[in-house]
Amino acid sequence: MRKSYLSFITALAFTAIFFAKCADNKQADPTIESTAAAEKTNFGGYETQVKWGEHLVTIGGCNDCHTPKKMTSMGPVDDSTLLLSGHPEKLPAPDVDRKQMESKGLVVTSDFTAWIGPWGISYSANLTPDETGTGKWTENQFLYAVRNSISKGLPGSRPLMPPMSMMPVKHMTDDELKAIFAYLRTIKPIKNNSVQPTPPVLPMK
Q1: Are 162 and 107 in contact (CB under 8 A)?
Q2: What does residue 34 show for φ and ψ, rounded to 5 degrees?
Q3: Coil, strand, or helix at residue 150?
């Protein structure tokens, strides 16, 4: 009985040593480590493409225009419940003397989702994955829209209006834009029809 017990203990010890060595080899596998590092590098140092996209949206100021604001004692702040849903379709444009603004070449906005200038009135679009936003867009469509300042990324469609047409986002790399698009697929879909631009009051010079 004692001999059988010792044999059993010895077998357990060898088994434990074997699995410990396997674990050490797995942890020290340079191939696995290098692959993980390469993937992280491909995402701008972030763990995933979506996290990288969220970072780019944040530092790129996308929320400045595409997220509606709510007023606080410290002034307007982003309304996180309407993240990147664009100018609220039922919210009127700023009430200003458009002729005076256009004649002086001024650009005005009240909440950063609607802009008035010599080009007329432009409204920030709904970027959420709802069908009223970018829900039916393809990745290539998104890249084409940003690169060429074309509405909805459809060739032959109207040009994007200022301030979007002036934004440096068009100079981002394909990988950066793809990361942004991947992030936009993950945010809350919000039903809000993008308001189309209004022509200027004065004739364009």
Answers
A1: yes
A2: -70, -35
A3: strand
* Helix axes 49-59 and 174-184, enclosed angle (nearest 10): 100
d(CA 198, CA 87): 14
Residue (of 178, 169, 189, 124) closest to 151 by Cα position: 124
Query: How far separated are the first and last CA of the chain, in Å rounded?
Result: 104
Q: What whole-number distance in Å separates Cα of residue 141 and Cα of residue 127?
A: 13
For 152, residues 6+ apart whose C-beta sits below 8 A from its C-beta are 137, 141, 145
pLDDT value for 7: 53
Enumerate residues 6+ apart whose C-beta is below 8 A from 161: 115, 119, 120, 122, 197
Cis previous bond, 163, omega within 30: yes
* pLDDT per residue as tens, the chain (205 positions): 554 544 545 554 455 455 455 455 555 566 555 555 555 568 999 999 999 999 999 999 999 999 999 988 888 899 999 999 999 999 998 899 999 999 999 999 988 999 999 999 999 999 999 999 999 999 999 999 999 999 999 999 999 999 999 999 999 999 999 999 999 999 999 999 999 999 999 987 6
Q: Distance between CA atoms of 55 and 46, rounded to whole angstroms? A: 9
Alpha carbon distance 64, 112 (integer Å): 7
Residue 80, classed as helix, strand or coil, is helix
Q: How is residue 57 written in tokens?
A: 């949206």
